[in-house]
């Protein structure tokens, strides 16, 4: 049996913050550096304030773009009143990937102990595009990428991965 070839994903990165600018977006920079080092393509990048409708609108726009396979958001996953990224994601999802939040919590517990309970990291699928909501810290972005996303977005990862089912994510939209 031959080894599978790497299949690059086209990934968009959206930072959600009321205080960050492009010049000091360390979490977004962390994700971009990691996805490019892995061989993926940065398809788009943006920065929005913590406004549910704006976030959901950008997620819809990008999930309808055939040149974007994956959307990573960073920020707005906490418990404060301004943290609305999770709600915006869930406004857009066709299906939620429930185990992502659980896996992220397990990874986080190894680093920050019980403080991991404060994260609401989540993931889902919308119009054939994967969406992942990550916390706003560079270390949380590194942990999510290194422990979960890098292997799952690698077509060579066995026994299964997100890339191999990507062509079938929107099959319900194509049915007659």
What does the model show?
With 176 residues, the chain is α/β, with parallel strands linked by helices. The chain has a single domain, classed as Molybdenum Cofactor Biosythetic Enzyme, Chain A (3-Layer(aba) Sandwich). Helix content is 40%, strand content 19%. It has seven helices and six strands. It has helices at residues 26-37, 52-63, 85-92, 98-112, 138-152, 162-165, 171-174; strands spanning 10-16, 41-48, 70-74, 95-96, 122-126, 129-134. The protein has a six-stranded mixed beta sheet with strand order 2-1-3-6-5-4, sandwiched between helices. β1, α1 (26-37) and β2 form a beta-alpha-beta unit. α1 (26-37) runs parallel beside α5, α2 packs across α3 and α4 (98-112) packs across α5 (138-152). It is globular and about 45 Å long.
> Into which percent range does the helicity of residues fall?
25-40%
* Number of contiguous helices: 7
In percent, how much strand structure appears in the residues?
A: 15-25%
Using the alpha-carbon principal axes, give the shape. Answer: globular
The secondary-structure class comes to: alpha/beta
Radius of gyration: 15 Å
Number of domains: 1
CATH superfamily: MoaB/Mog-like domain
**Largest beta-sheet characterization:** 6 strands, mixed
CATH class: Alpha Beta
The separation of the N and C termini measures 36 Å
Mean pLDDT: 94
Structure keywords:
6-stranded mixed beta sheet, 19% strand, Molybdenum Cofactor Biosythetic Enzyme, Chain A, 7 helices, alpha/beta, 176 residues
Structure summary:
With 176 residues, the protein is of the alpha/beta class. The chain has helices at 26-37, 52-63, 85-92, 98-112, 138-152, 162-165, 171-174; strands at 10-16, 41-48, 70-74, 95-96, 122-126, 129-134. A hairpin with a 2-residue loop joins β5 and β6 (129-134).
